């Protein structure tokens, strides 16, 4: 339950969505209007489009006949390969259009020089296929279509060809899990299992075999410890179940093993879930959606204005509702795929997807790998050059290079020969992940992977990104999470015009955002925006990023020293932002309280915001929007280390607020009616958790004036007052019992 395949999710004919990558249906209509200078190319593309329409008309018939006619199946495989090659060619035309436009728009010598180098590299590689050759291949496919007798067929039309009918069913699994036969006493289950367990050929299939007798005492700790000792052939002295499971997870990772639990009587499913948790892994929803988007599997909707990422989440939830994905029992934030569904995914993907478990050994495997477009592999502690030797067979058309990781490996090591020699050969690469590899440097040729849409460098030791990365005009996802040694982003990101997702959370050495952030108009998720002092982007550039959604952390706001440069609200139109953190620096000296209040005022978010955190703010008071009842969606609020503030905003007016934390407000002496909200009859009516911490001079909690019509804190279930030494008075006057 650990392998994930890339499945097409286009609505409509299932076969068509697999044979023709979804992006293909977008590229031709977009490119044709731009090819006005080359009438010959335009004419050839129009012919190509006409022939493809003829082929599309018979795909339903081919889908039915492929199971009875191997020649049809081979024709479909060749058609799929052709579609991939055609998409590559169209992508290349589209890239050249972008390059020409960018070169004319950007006047800097640096950008022009980099684009010239890219064009020189690609022209020397003779990578563009002749549109005439493409049409010849398509003509051949059309002739074979006629020879195979493929005809137009309406979806759902019955066929005269005898086809094996699958019984009606749903996607819901009829059994949650299958462990074998149970409850049938005295039928020889143990004896049969012993024969299988001791069979001499078992060693071919399993790295390890373990037999545990359970009996009546279904003790998860005892069984986990016994399994670990049997696998490691050593005694285990760990007393904590979690530590045992961590060691067990490490012991079974990337190994095939046979585990027999004999004489089991317990039917407690919760205990089963705990026992099997070390043997499971999974992936997060966002990771899968981003990969789907990079592979071109998510299509824009003609009926809504939803962003591609949001449409991808809709896809995921639909698959989850059909039990294609299931929640991991060991980590609620991750999802797994049932082994039967995984087998189906591998069968559907055919030869286009390949997972490298170890080094390829057989000619059959190698032959299958030669047609692969997407490849994943099991990541080891050290991945040497020889492991990837077989990739020389697919350098011309590989689209996906994806290591499958386990959370137990703190770091993985990979040969420099792979990074600097092999990867630059994958000129058609769309998805590249080097996550968790201990690498400090990347090749300049990374920027020449002009098709690249997804680049994941999370948890690596890279100190800088090559300047050529600004040439990745098609890049949509850039993940630099926890790159703790990364000093800066590329100095000009304005050319990354298709960037949708930028995650630099945990890249704590980056001191400012680069110039050109305002040009990233399609940016949908931005984890952090770091305000610099000199040549970087200004916080006002956020106003141009109208599609921002999810969570945003703006830090180093103390570097905004002139509030006049903002002039207007920055975030008020970002209606899809849900979580916002506004962070000023720790040092309060030489800070202008008036400027900081103006800056905070200009950073007023949209009223759709659900969580707000304000840290190290240096103003004496908060602007009027903080605590405004119009923020009816806000459920979580934190005010932390705002040491100059002498009063709190009217937070009692926030009718949906459930969680409130006030920490390090060293200037607060008392709280009173203003904090509750003047004239509010039910202040803090939804508040459930309230934490007050590190308020060294807070002395009085003044209640609302006695009024039988005022009812505050009616839902409060948890109150924490920590390190507030000067506070006096009776709390029961403020908090209902």
TrEMBL record:
Residues 540-665 form the R13L1/DRL21-like LRR repeat region domain. Residues 284-345 form the Disease resistance protein winged helix domain. The keyword Calcium does not apply. It holds the Pfam family Rx_N. This is Disease resistance RPP13-like protein 1. It comes from the Eukaryota. Keywords: Nucleotide-binding, Plant defense, Repeat. The keyword Repeat applies. Residues 27-104 form the Disease resistance N-terminal domain. GO terms for biological process: defense response; response to other organism. Residues 187-275 form the NB-ARC domain. One of its GO terms (molecular function) is ADP binding. PANTHER family: LEUCINE-RICH REPEAT-CONTAINING PROTEIN 57, OS12G0131701 PROTEIN.
């Amino acid at each position: 339950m650990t392998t994930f395949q890339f499945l097409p999710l286009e609505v409509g004919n299932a076969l068509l969505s697999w044979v023709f990558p979804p992006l293909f249906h977008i590229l031709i209509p977009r490119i044709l209007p731009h090819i006005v200078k080359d009438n010959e190319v335009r004419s050839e593309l129009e012919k190509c489009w006409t022939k493809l329409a003829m082929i599309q008309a018979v795909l339903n018939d081919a889908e039915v006949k492929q199971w009875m006619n191997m020649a049809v199946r081979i024709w479909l495989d060749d058609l799929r390969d052709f579609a991939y090659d055609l998409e590559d060619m169209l992508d290349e035309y589209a890239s050249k259009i972008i390059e020409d436009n960018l070169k004319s728009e950007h006047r800097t010598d640096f950008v022009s020089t980099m684009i010239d180098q890219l064009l020189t590299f690609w022209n020397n590689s003779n990578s563009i296929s002749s549109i005439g050759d493409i049409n010849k291949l398509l003509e051949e496919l059309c002739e074979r279509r006629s020879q195979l007798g493929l005809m137009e067929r309406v979806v759902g039309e019955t066929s005269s060809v005898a086809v094996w009918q699958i019984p009606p069913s749903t996607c819901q699994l009829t059994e949650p899990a299958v462990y074998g036969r149970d409850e049938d006493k005295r039928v020889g289950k143990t004896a049969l299992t012993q024969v299988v367990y001791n069979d001499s050929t078992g060693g071919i299939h399993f790295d390890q075999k373990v037999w545990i007798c359970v009996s009546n005492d279904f003790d998860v700790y005892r069984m986990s410890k016994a399994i670990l000792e049997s696998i490691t052939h050593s005694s285990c002295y760990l007393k904590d179940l979690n530590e045992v499971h961590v060691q067990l997870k490490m012991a079974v990772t990337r190994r095939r093993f046979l585990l027999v639990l004999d004489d089991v009587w317990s039917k407690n499913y919760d205990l089963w879930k705990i026992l099997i948790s070390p043997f499971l892994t999974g992936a997060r929803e966002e990771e899968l959606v981003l990969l789907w988007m990079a592979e071109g599997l998510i299509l824009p909707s003609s009926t809504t204005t939803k962003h591609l990422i949001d449409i991808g989440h809709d896809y995921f939830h639909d698959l989850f509702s059909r039990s294609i994905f299931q929640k991991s029992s060991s980590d609620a934030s991750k999802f797994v795929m049932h082994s039967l569904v995984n087998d189906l995914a591998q069968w559907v993907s055919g030869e286009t997807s390949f997972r490298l478990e170890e080094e390829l050994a057989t000619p059959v495997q190698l032959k299958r790998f030669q047609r692969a477009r997407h490849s994943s592999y099991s990541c080891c502690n050290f991945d040497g050059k020889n492991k990837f030797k077989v990739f020389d067979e697919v350098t011309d058309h590989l689209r996906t290079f994806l290591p499958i990781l386990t959370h137990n490996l703190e770091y993985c090591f990979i040969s420099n020969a792979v990074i600097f020699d092999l990867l630059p050969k994958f000129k058609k690469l769309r998805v590249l992940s080097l996550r968790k590899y201990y690498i400090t440097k990347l090749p300049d040729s990374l920027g020449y992977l002009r098709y690249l849409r997804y680049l994941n460098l999370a948890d690596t030791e890279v100190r800088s990104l090559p300047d050529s990365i600004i040439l990745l005009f098609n890049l949509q996802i850039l993940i630099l999470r926890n790159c703790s040694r990364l000093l800066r982003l590329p100095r000009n990101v304005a050319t990354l015009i298709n960037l949708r997702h930028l995650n630099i959370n945990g890249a704590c050495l980056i001191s400012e955002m680069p110039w050109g952030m305002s040009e990233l108009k399609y940016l949908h998720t931005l984890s952090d925006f770091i305000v610099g002092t000199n040549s970087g982007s200004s916080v006002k550039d956020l106003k141009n990023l109208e599609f921002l959604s999810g969570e945003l952390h703006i830090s180093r706001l103390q570097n905004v020293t002139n509030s006049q440069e903002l002039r207007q609200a920055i975030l008020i139109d970002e209606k899809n932002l849900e979580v916002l953190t506004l962070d000023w620096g720790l040092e309060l000296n030489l800070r202008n309280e008036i400027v900081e209040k103006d800056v905070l005022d200009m950073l007023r978010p949209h009223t759709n915001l659900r969580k707000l955190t304000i840290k190290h703010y240096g103003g004496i008071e908060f602007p009027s929007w903080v605590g405004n009842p119009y923020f009816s969606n806000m459920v979580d609020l934190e005010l932390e280390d705002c040491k100059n503030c002498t009063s709190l905003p009217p937070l009692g007016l926030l009718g949906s607020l459930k969680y409130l934390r006030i920490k390090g407000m060293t200037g607060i002496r008392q709280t009173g009616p203003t904090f509750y909200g003047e004239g509010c009859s039910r202040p803090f009516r939804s508040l459930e958790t309230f934490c007050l911490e590190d308020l060294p001079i807070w002395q009085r909690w003044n209640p609302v004036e006695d009024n039988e019509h005022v009812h505050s804190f009616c839902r409060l279930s948890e109150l924490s007052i920590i390190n507030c030494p000067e506070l006096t008075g009776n709390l029961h006057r403020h908090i209902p019992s």
